[in-house]
Amino acid sequence: MEKAFMVLSFPNILCFMSLLCSIAVGRACLQCDPRVILLHEDYILAAATASVEDQIELKKILDQAYINYRTTSQQLSGGVIDLTTLYRASTEYQSEFHRFQNSQPKGLLTFQTIQIVEKGRNILEKHLQTIFQEGLCPNKCGLLHQRVMNCLSCQYNLHICPWTTSDCGEYPLVAGEGEQALLDCFLPWHRLVVGRPEYQYTWAPGMFSTANLTEADFRVLVVSQDSYIVLNQLTIEEGGVYRCILKDSTEAVLSCTYFLLNVTRSPVPTPRSLLILPSLSPGDEAPPLTQPPPELLLVIVAMVTAMSLAVSLGLAFKLMTLRRREAEKKGAK
């Protein structure tokens, strides 16, 4: 208990409070993430077991780290960072920081602390290089109000990504009569649009080119948060120009995509011709069938009847003979 009282003495408390204040004022990009803030606060709390000299040295290291982070972000991204890049840099830094804490012995080592905060700057620089090389705006067409983090104030701002045109292309489609067609105007940067944007699909029937089209030529089909629609059981009349517009909550057009759908007719089946047999020549005609005379039919019927009677009488005589023999055997017994 005496040792704990000496560690939390008045000079130590003043130094500990000054460290917390320096973190609140000097946040850079990595420290704008609440998870990183808690990670550093826990690390500072561990300084209560160190000497006053170690705490002062630790404060100097962290202050310099914040300056390095801010300088790096200003040089590579103009002092702002998009939330995707911030998440990736923060996640990698936290993983390295936990590995550092688990590998070091008890107490705070100033040299190892310098190494881990410098590694954090390298991580931040690596991810900011993507912004520096590709630019902060991922959209190649359309309008994007991207939510970014100000690395100096840790406040969210909207960064306007300008566009040369809201037209994001034309896509010709061909489908057969009775088939289906999938229209999907999703672009990867649509995920970064702030709020709950909606997709509006309209249709200009009978049109197969975007030239000279006016707003009056389009009919509204559907308004949805889904980027795609499916047209089933297509007919010839459903061909035309389909337009997909992405709008934000202020009805501002963010992107516009066209689909030129051509519905082809199903092939008409060829009628099957009837098989016609060739006619016979006069010499190849078969003679007509002749019927037998009635007298011959009577003779045949009489013969069949007589044979039937003879067979019946023979069977009856044989049956009577068998019965008589059986009766004689019984009488002899």
In short:
By secondary structure, the protein is an alpha+beta fold. It has helices spanning 2-7, 10-25, 34-45, 52-77, 83-103, 110-134, 294-332; strands at 80-82, 144-150, 156-161, 167-176, 181-184, 198-205, 219-224, 228-231, 240-247, 253-264. The protein has seven helices and ten strands.
The counted number of beta strands is 10
What is the helix tally?
A: 7
**How does the overall form come out from the CA principal axes?**
elongated
Classification by helices and strands: alpha+beta
Structural Rg: 49 Å
Cα-to-Cα separation, first versus last residue = 136 Å
Largest sheet: 5 strands, mixed
Main sheet: strand order: 4-10-9-6-7
Order of helices and strands: HHHHEHHEEEEEEEEEH
Please give the share of residues in helix. 40-55%
Low-pLDDT windows of residues: 1-28
Average pLDDT figure: 78
Indicate the proportion of strand residues: 15-25%
